[in-house]
Each structure stands twice: as structure tokens, then as C-alpha cells.
Specification:
It is a single chain. By secondary structure, the protein is an all-alpha fold. Helices cover about 90% and strands about 0% of the residues. The chain has helices spanning about 5-35, 40-55, 60-70, 80-95, 100-205. The radius of gyration is 49 Å and the shape is rod-shaped.
Length: about 200
């Protein structure tokens, strides 16, 4: 008795969800009727969805009619729609007590589900491979940029060192020239003094 309110609440909640689903599926079916040339995959999905809803509501005959209409739609390119449809067929066959067909439909649904899972895994692997290649390329670019920066720094340091040596050599050259000029001036002054002495000696003589 303590579980009855919870069970009633769950049933009411499920009923509410079925009513909501019925409303949206009816609107989608009206769209499909208004546009008869729409994609066959859309027709396939909507009718199969409506059949599943009819099964949940207990309208077995309506579900059988809808499932029969779905089977007449071919060239479906979306495996997920096929998988969901086979699950609904499995549910219908189980309600009818046709366990052999239910098992066959379950096997079909599992095949599509495995295929979808494989595709998802393959897509995930491809995405990881793509991201790895992107990361590797980015890392390679960063390494090249770092190497280029290091090489530029070496070249800049070399240029600074060469300029520094050139400036030092220029300063040394200037000092040497000034020293030599100073010595030359002293030598010239000394010679002028000696010349003056000789002239004085000549005059004195």
C-alpha cells in the first residue's frame, strides 16, 4: 500500500509523456502529409515512431498497420532509423507471441547497433588521429619558431659582439693615433729647439 502512490505517479507521468509524444508525432505526421515528396527517411522514421507509440498505448492493430506501411518504404540511408525500427518490430512480435520473429528482429537490431557502435568508434579514432596530427603539427611549428628565435638570438648576439669589437678597435686606433701624434709633436718641438740652439751657436760664432 505504501508503494501505490509512487506507482500511480509513475503511471500518470508515463501517460503524460505518451500524450506529449502523441501531440508532437501528430504534428510531424501532418507535416509529412502536407509535403508528400519529403525525404523517404523522414517518412520511414515518423511512421516507425508512430508505430512504437501505438505499441506503448496498446493499439496493436494500429501499430501493425503502421509497421506494414513502414516496410513498404525503401532506400533508407540512415542505419539508426533501421535499428530503432527493428526494435519496434521485435516489441510487436513479442506482444504477438511470435518469439522466432522477435529473436530475428532483435538480431537485426543488434547488427545495426554494432555497426553504429563501430562507426562511432571509428569516428572517435579518426577524430583523435586528426587532433593528434593537429597537435603534432602545432608542436612542430612551435619547435621551429623556438629554433628560429634561438637562431635569431644567436645572430643578434653575434652582431652585437662584432659591433662591440669594431667599436673597441676604433677606440684603440684613436688612442694609438693620438699617442703617435703626441710623440710626433714632441719630436718636432725638440728638433725646433735644437735648430734654435744651432742658429744661436752660428750667430755667436
Amino acid at each position: 500500500q505504501t508503494q501505490q502512490p509512487g506507482g500511480l505517479s509513475a503511471r500518470l507521468d508515463r501517460l503524460h509523456k505518451l500524450e506529449e509524444a502523441h501531440k508532437y508525432i501528430d504534428r510531424a505526421m501532418q507535416y509529412m502529409v502536407a509535403y508528400p515528396d519529403c525525404d523517404p527517411s523522414v517518412k520511414f522514421y515518423l511512421k516507425s515512431l508512430a508505430a512504437g507509440l501505438a505499441l506503448d498505448e496498446g493499439h496493436i492493430d494500429d501499430a501493425a498497420q503502421l509497421l506494414k506501411e513502414v516496410e513498404s518504404i525503401t532506400e533508407i540511408q540512415i542505419p539508426r532509423y533501421k535499428m530503432l525500427h527493428y526494435k519496434r518490430l521485435q516489441h510487436y512480435a513479442a506482444i504477438r507471441g511470435n518469439w522466432q520473429d522477435a529473436y530475428r528482429y532483435m538480431s537485426k537490431a543488434d547488427e545495426y547497433e554494432d555497426s553504429l557502435r563501430s562507426n562511432i568508434t571509428e569516428n572517435n579514432v579518426n577524430e583523435m588521429r586528426f587532433r593528434y596530427l593537429q597537435d603534432t603539427t602545432l608542436l612542430h611549428q612551435q619547435i621551429l619558431i623556438a629554433e628560429y628565435g634561438e637562431e635569431s638570438l644567436k645572430q643578434r648576439n653575434l652582431i652585437v659582439m662584432i659591433l662591440s669589437l669594431a667599436i673597441i678597435a676604433g677606440l684603440i686606433s684613436i688612442v694609438i693615433i693620438m699617442v703617435l701624434r703626441h710623440r710626433a709633436h714632441k719630436h718636432i718641438a725638440k728638433q725646433l729647439v735644437e735648430i734654435a740652439k744651432l742658429r744661436m751657436d752660428v750667430i755667436r760664432n
